[in-house]
Amino acid sequence: MQTDLGESAVVLLSGGMDSAVVFAMAQERGLRCHALSVAYGQRHTSELVAAAGLAVSMQAASYKVVNVDLRHIGGSALTADIDVPDHGGTGIPVTYVPARNTIMLSVALGWAEVLGAAELYCGVNAVDYSGYPDCRPAFIEAFERLANLATKAGVEGQTMRVNAPLMAMSKADIVREACGHCDACRLRAEGFQNAGVADPTRYA
C-alpha cells in the first residue's frame, strides 16, 4: 500500500540483512525513513559499522545511534561472558538478550514521537527465531497497544503502528527479497563496501 510521501517512519537498522530488507520495504511504501541503531553492548559491533554505511547509501532521512549498555545487566551470551553453543538446544537460547527488543522499540517510539512519525519498523522474525519471546506476533501486537496507550501522540489521537513485515517469512523468503539487482540490494552492498565490512549476504 502506497502512503503519502510526507509520512515518516523510524526503522530499527542493525546493519544485517533483515533490517536492510525492512528498511527497503518501508521506503517502497513511500515513507520518509529515519534509521535508528542501538549499541547495546553487543560483542560484535561490525553490524553497527555496516548500519552507518547503509543509512548513508540508502539515503535515510536521518540516522541516530543510541547507546544502551545492556552489559550492565548481562544474562546473555551476546552481552556477558557466556559461551555460545555450537548447536541450538531446547527452550529460550542463551543468545536471547533480556528485554532487548522492548528497549530498542521503546527508544524508537520515543524518537518517533519527537519526529512526528506514526510508523515503527523492525526486522523481528518468528519463523527462524521462534525461541525468542520478543520475536513473536503477540509481542509486536502488545507493544503496539502500549505505544498507543503510553504516548502523547497516541492519547491525542494519532495511531502509532508497529510493523514487522518479516514476521512470517522464512530466511529463504527474506533472502529472495534481497535479490541483488534492485536499488535496495545494490545500495546495501555499497554500504558494506563503504564501511569496509564483508557483506555476508548471498544474493539470488
Can you characterise this structure?
The chain is an alpha/beta fold. It has a single domain (8-79, 90-195), classed as HUPs (Rossmann fold, 3-Layer(aba) Sandwich). It has helices spanning 17-28, 46-57, 100-115, 137-149, 152-155, 171-177, 183-195, and strands at 8-12, 32-39, 62-67, 119-121, 161-163.
Chart the SSEs and their pairings.
Elements: E1 8-12, H1 17-28, E2 32-39, H2 46-57, E3 62-67, H3 100-115, E4 119-121, H4 137-149, H5 152-155, E5 161-163, H6 171-177, H7 183-195
Parallel strand pairs: 1-2, 1-4, 2-3, 4-5
Helix pairs in contact: 2-7
Total beta strands: 5
CATH topology: Rossmann fold
Q: Structural class of the helices, strands and pairings?
A: alpha/beta
Which geometry do the CA atoms define? Answer: globular
CATH class: Alpha Beta
Tally of individual domains: 1
The run of helices and strands is: EHEHEHEHHEHH
The biggest sheet, with number of strands, parallel, antiparallel or mixed sense and barrel status, is:
5 strands, parallel
User: Taking Cα atoms only, what radius of gyration do you get, to the nearest Å?
Assistant: 17 Å
Distance between the terminal alpha carbons, to the nearest Å? 25 Å
CATH architecture identity: 3-Layer(aba) Sandwich
